[in-house]
Amino acid sequence: MSKALDGVRILDFTHVQSGPTCTQLLAWFGADVIKVERAGEGDITRGQLRDIPDVDSLYFTMLNHNKRSITVDAKNPKGKAVLEALVKKCDVMVENFAPGALDRMGFTWERIQELNPKMIVASIKGFGPGPYQDCKVYENVAQCAGGSASTTGFRDEVPLVTGAQIGDSGTGLHLALGIVTALYHRTHSGRGQRVTCAMQDGVLNLCRVKLRDQQRLAHGPLKEYSQYGEGIPFGDATPRAGNDSGGGQPGRILKCKGWEKDPNAYLYFITQAPVWGAICDMIGEPGWKTHPDYAKAEARLPRLNAIFERIERWTMTKTKFEAMDLLNQHDIPCGPILSMKELAEEPSLRATGTVVEVDHPKRGKYLSVGCPIKLSDSPADVKRSPLLGEHTDEVLTELGYTREQIQALRAERAV
Ligand code: COA
Question: Residue 55 to residues 48, 51, 71, 106, 169: CA-CA distances in angstroms?
Fold first, then answer.
């Protein structure tokens, strides 16, 4: 079966996490992703957070599946010539260098267009044009600058960053969409274009509902936030809301049986209005179905703390899985807090390829997250990440270099 992006060639100049997430997705969809690295060191993540000496880290292997690796010194004139040959041959260049680095290498947008007018150049930067455009940015900087940290955590505590890599992987996802959109546009424009994603913008996009709440504040308190029920006045910016639901259906994380010892014995419980009657029956409060303080969603808003305390007295009598089974019989939305251990061992995630076991020649078997996007006619088979420079000879040969020329490039440290 052919893959959706068969025939698309990606010159992958990405490193660390944000860019590699993007090109890994494109590789899973069938693109030929040629990752360019510096000889000797390669992508810095190969050596970061290593769990086994001298073996590519899980940080690297889990972000660079299905790619080929070629080592080229972009600052060596002969290495640069190799890159120019790749620019002519590829459809897309993806990079997430610090601002200005690609230009300093000599690959300005004008130069790339001269070499290949059909090339799409896709970039991730920390910030878009403006006061911070020249800054280097990592995940947590983006979470803080994009509105996530100021709205995550508990109201009277410090801002929190989240474990979900919304700045890096989130922006990589945004960029991948930009690239396939530009590829589609090229089918009728015949031209390449620049695709840029700023991590601040990507995070803000994912925090859209919090900008919604910022504007709602002008028209009164945010009644679904627990601080409303607690009688605490709102300030002039969207506050941190703990585990309150970000939507119109109030929700909380509640303790389940075993919470005293198990840090993940919790359940997210949503008091969705249409199933309120079923919730009342389940927790043993049938009188709440008709009581004027509880029957209507609006009446419940100032009482959410008391309501969730009562529901928690029920969830604490069940394990998170027992509660999940019972509640789902009545379509009451809820979700167990699953640990990474539980996710790694979950058979249904293995069956769908969302969690995959990969074999690596130096590391042996390890687990990874497979492609979370399922295409019925283009399934993603996860192949191990490349060793540093594993495909240098292969790619150079495809570019027309002879064995002797490759040896000469190596002798001059150009590749
Ligand atoms: N051959 C020769 N030089 C190479 C090379 C190659 N194959 N690959 C990279 N380099 C050089 C670059 O040209 C650059 O040199 P210069 O500064 O002299 O122009 C240098 O390596 C370092 O690149 P840089 O991107 O500045 O790396 P860094 O480790 O200092 O910074 C980041 C890392 C992530 C902070 C930075 O790249 C960045 O802000 N990127 C954009 C935002 C982003 O994606 N952040 C999230 C990362 S998960």
Answer: 10, 8, 18, 33, 23
For 181-214, how does the pLDDT look when each residue is reduced to its tens digit (9 = 90+)? Answer: 999 999 999 999 999 999 999 999 999 999 999 9
Neighbours of 348 (CB within 10 A): 8
Look up the pTM and report it: 0.96
Q: 71: which strand partners? A: 37
Task: Mention every residue, 6+ apart, whose C-beta is less than 8 A from residue 376.
Answer: none
User: What's the gap between Cα 151 and its chain centre?
Assistant: 19
Give how far Cα 98 sits from Cα of 39, 87, 141, 284, Å: 20, 20, 14, 58
Q: How far apart are CA 313 and CA 409, in angstroms?
A: 71
Residue 239 CB contacts under 8 Å (≥ 6 apart), including other chains:
151, 155, 222, 225, 227
168, 201, 213, 244: the catalytic one is: 168
**Does the C-beta of 136 come closer than 6 Å to ligand 1?**
yes
Question: How far is the centre of ligand 1, averaged over its atoms, from the C-alpha of 50 (Å)?
Answer: 21
Contacts of 263 (CB under 8 A, 6+ apart): 339
Q: Give pLDDT, residue 218.
A: 96
Q: What is the pLDDT of residues 332-375, one digit of tens each?
A: 999 999 999 999 999 999 999 999 999 999 999 999 999 999 99
Nearest ligand 1 atom to alpha carbon 126: 42
Which ligand 1 atom is the nearest neighbour of the CA of 17? 48
Q: How far apart are the first and last CA of the chain?
A: 34
Which residues 6+ apart lie within 8 Å of 297 measured at CB?
A: 273, 276
- Span from the CA of 15 to the centroid of ligand 1 (angstroms): 8
Q: Is the CB of 25 under 6 A from ligand 1?
A: no
Whether 150 contacts 240, CB under 8 Å: yes
